[in-house]
Input
Amino acid sequence: MFPLKNHNFIFLAFALSICLLTSCSTNKIISKKVAKEFKNSQVIKQYQVGFALYNPVDKKMVFQKDADKYFTPASNTKLYTFFASLKMLPDLMPALKYIERNDSLIFWGTGDPAFLQFAVKDKSAYNFLLASNKKLFFSPGRYSGSFFGDGWSWDDYDYYYQPEITEMPIMDNMVTSTYASPNKINIEPRVFASCFEIDSTKKTGSFQVSRDFLSNRFHYPAVSVQPGYNQQNPYKTSAQVTVEILSDTLHKPVGIINLKIPSYAKTLSGAKRDSVLKHMMLPSDNFIAEHLLLVCSNQIGDTLSTTKAIDYITKNYLSFLPDKVKWVDGSGLSRQNLFTPRDNVYLLDSIYRLVNNPEKLFNLLPAGGKSGTLKSAYPKTDKPFVFGKTGSLGGVHNQSGYVLTKKGKMYIYSFMNNSFVKPTAEVRAEMVRIITYIHNTF
Output
C-alpha cells in the first residue's frame, strides 16, 4: 500500500495528465475543423492567405496556414508600435525638453503627437509655453529622417492619412478647413488662411481643397461650399512653419535657435500614454503611430529617428519572435514592412501579458461590431467577441487580435490576406465568417 502522501501525488499527476491530454485533444479537434473551413472556402483560394490561431493558456499554436510566410501587414504594423510604446514610454508622454537660460526658455520637440491633436486635445505643452514670461525659442534639428517614411507613396502627400513626420508636430501636421457659409470656409491653424487661393478655372464639381507638393499653397474651386464640409490636408513642414504656427497660436513671438540639447534639459510631461495609444488604434491613426516611434527614440538618445527606434526595439524586446521582422515605419503605410502571422500572434500574446488586464487592453483596441475599424466589420453589438487591429492597402486586408468564444475561451489569431484583386468587402466578409465560426464553435 502506498503512503497517503504518495497516493495524493499519483492522483494529482494522473489528473494533470488527463487535463493535458484533454487540452491536446481539444486543440487537435479545433485544428481539424478550422482546416476544413479553409479547405472548403472558394474565396481564399484566389489570393495569398496566411493564418495563425494560438491558444495562450496552453501556449500552443492550434492551427497554421502559411503562418511562417511573410505578408505585407499594412496597419497591423501599429501593433508593433503599440507594443513598443507600452515597453518604452511612461504613463505621461514626454511633451517637450527644455531649459531656462537667463530671460529665455529654449525648447526641443520629442516627437509627441498629442500637441493640440484634434482627438487627444492635450494642451500640456501649449499651456506651459503660454504661461512662461520668458522669451521663447524653438531649437530644431533632433529629427534625422525624411518628411515621409521609407516606401511611402508620394502621390498621397495631399491626403489626410499621410501627414509629414516632424520633431514637433502641431495639430496633426494638417490644415483643417470647414464650412462657414456657402462662400466661406474656416481654416485652422489660422496662419495658413493667406495661403488659400481660389482656382477660377474650376467652376464645376464638389468643393475640395488641394495643396501644391512642395509648398503651402492651397487651392479650391469656384463652387459653393456645402454645409457639413470638413477636410484635412497635410501642410508642408519646416522649422519656420513650426514657429509661425506656435507664434500665431500662442499670440506671442517664438524664435528659432540652433542649440544642441544639453544633458541637463528638463522634460515636460504631457498626455496620458494610454489615451494616445487608444486614439492611434481605434481609427488607425498614421500620424500618431509615426510620431510614437519618435517619442520612443527620445527615450534612448538625443536623435529622433524611426530607424534607431525600430532597431532598438527589435534588438531589445522582440527576440522572442520566431521570424525576423522587416519593420520600417510606425504606421504600416510602407509596403516594405513584412511580418508573418505567427509573429503577430506571439506579439499579441506578449501584449496581453504585458498589460495584464484584459478589460483595459480590449478598451484600447477596435472591437468587432462596436468601435474603431472593426465596428462595421462585424454585426452591431454591445458585447463584442473580437478585439484587434485591421490593416488595409491596395490588395491587402488583414486582421489580427483576440477572439472570445461562446464556451468562454480566448484565442489569439492573425489573418493576413495579400495580392487579391477582388473587392476588399468580399475578402473581409470571408475573414469575418471564419473568425465568427471560431467564436460560435469553440
Remarks:
- The CA atoms of residues 13 and 19 lie 10 Å apart.
- The chain has two domains: 34-73+339-441, 86-292.
- The two ends are 43 Å apart (CA to CA).
